[in-house]
Design a protein that fits this description.
Layout (H helix, E strand, L loop, with lengths): L10 E11 L6 E6 L4 E6 L2 H5 L14 E4 L2 E2 L7 E2 L10 E4 L10 E11 L2 E5 L2 E6 L25 E6 L9
Parallel strand pairs: 5-6
Antiparallel strand pairs: 1-2, 1-8, 3-4, 3-7, 8-11, 9-10
Amino acid sequence: MRTPQCPPGWCICWGRILLALGLGSQLAAQPLIELGEPWRFLNATPELATNTLWRQPEFSDAQWYLAPSGFGNSGHGEQTRYDSAPGDWSTVLFRKSFVVPDPATIRNWSLRLDYSEGLLVYLNGQEVARRGFPPPTELPEVPTETVPAYRTYGQAEILTFTNELGPLRAG
């Protein structure tokens, strides 16, 4: 696997979602989204980033860019570079649809990603992870001009969630 690298700014460079499936004591890790699968992405205007509609599964992202995951603008082996597209790419929004046939069979799930600076993760409209920003109790909505805490890229982080969180739904 290539070493992920990304410049300062908000971006998900490499990502993978794993689900732990099974009932009783038998669990099997099964990739749900593989590295290199196409994602939708767009540079965030302040209006779009604070509009919660884009976070909802029903939102139409058909006008957004579509490209294989492994995003960035540093030229360090990213599969998709967005720095050649017009606009300010300091804040980037990413979307990926996937199907979970039966959420009751999932005990936990993990998101493996590399990013620099800030990160907000939403699942079916619900915030499930936040890195580099004040907690939601202090800053419920994060404006695009908010400067996140610095994080060195190049070291993937694995975020693990239990299905008790509730945002996974069938279909």
